[in-house]
Every structure is written in structure tokens, then in C-alpha cells.
Amino acid sequence: MLESLITSKTRLRLLIKFFVNSQNHSHLRGLAEEFGESTNAIRKELNNLTDAGILVKHSDKNKIEYQANTLHPFYTNIRDIIRKYLGLDMLLEQILERMGDVDQVVLTGDIARGSDTGTIDVLVTGASLNEDYFHHLTKRLEQLIDRKVIFSLSSGRFVSDGLVLFDRSTGI
């Protein structure tokens, strides 16, 4: 659906890369390798998004790195649209609905790094999680969001790299 609004596949991939997780940053050559596209196509879209103020660039030694501009007035709107496009809003809603006493929901793997490979790795932490619902939820979510969902359950808190969608202790 978002493909009809944003017709440039490269631009959509860049928006996913930088807006699914505001901590994601990359440089031109890294993006060209990751996307399997020419540096010219990537450079054009990076320039357009930077000129619009949606991305910011900064120098890191001899490389220019790009990152989402979290101060842009539309940052939150774009982030929410990208997360909705990926189905992350529905995923979180379904987990919190009947999964039990959830402490954290953390995205790990490719999606946390802003790469939409069609697989979403999700870590759910909590003291007493409903494992029966967990098995049913995997199939249901895969049908709803048209992506493969891989769940991991843990009773302890997760402290590492990843995109935290929900954390009871911090109110996120």
C-alpha cells in the first residue's frame, strides 16, 4: 500500500532503514551494498531526503553518514507510518492483548537494523507468559502482516542492541 504513495523503491527502503529505528545510521557505500543498488541511485535519494530535512548527515572521518532527523516536525509521523507499514503496531497490540504479564517487547535481527527482509525477530520478556497463545499468535500475525515472525520468550530483562517497542519499567 505504501508503495503506491512512495513510488521509489530506493526511497522507501531508505525510509525503512532510518525510521524504523532512529539509532540506525549508514553511509553511501554501505547502503549501496546492503540494497544491491548503484551508488548513484542511493545518492540521489539521500540528497532529496537530506534537502527536505528528513535525514541529517554528518562526517565520520572521511565518510558521510546519514541518519533520521529526529528534530524534523514530521519525524514521529514518518516513523509511525513506517512501523504501521511493517505491521509493528499490530504486532505489539496482539502481543500485549493476551500474552500475559509482558515486561518487554524487543525487535532484534534485520528489522531492528532497518532491513525489511520479510522476517521479524521478536523477543518477549515477562514472568508468566502465555505460551499457548504465543504458538497461535505466530500464525495469526504472519497472516495479518504478511511477514514471517520468529518469537523468543525470556523471563529475564533484555539489555543489548535491539529496538524496544514496549518496556513496562520505562513506560515506552
**Uncertain ranges:** none
Strand element count: 7
The total domain count is 2
Report helical residue fraction. 40-55%
The overall average pLDDT, rounded, is 88
Strand order of the largest sheet: 6-5-4-7
CATH-derived topology of the largest domain: Beta Polymerase, domain 2
Q: Label the overall shape.
A: elongated
Structural class category: alpha+beta
CATH H level, superfamily name of the largest domain: Beta Polymerase, domain 2
Main β-sheet: number of strands, strand sense, barrel status?
4 strands, mixed
- Cα-atom Rg, whole angstroms? 17 Å
> Count of helical segments?
7
CATH class of the largest domain: Alpha Beta
The percentage of residues in β strands lies in 25-35%
Give the CA-CA distance, first to last residue: 28 Å
Regarding quaternary structure, what we see is single chain
Question: Mind explaining what this structure looks like?
Answer:
The chain is α+β, with helices and mostly antiparallel strands and 172 residues long. It is 43% helix and 27% strand. The protein has helices spanning 2-5, 9-19, 28-35, 39-51, 75-86, 88-98, 131-145; strands at 25-27, 55-60, 63-68, 100-108, 119-129, 148-154, 163-167. The mean pLDDT is 88. This is DeoR family transcriptional regulator. Keywords: Transcription, Transcription regulation. InterPro entries: DeoR_HTH (IPR001034), WH_DNA-bd_sf (IPR036390).
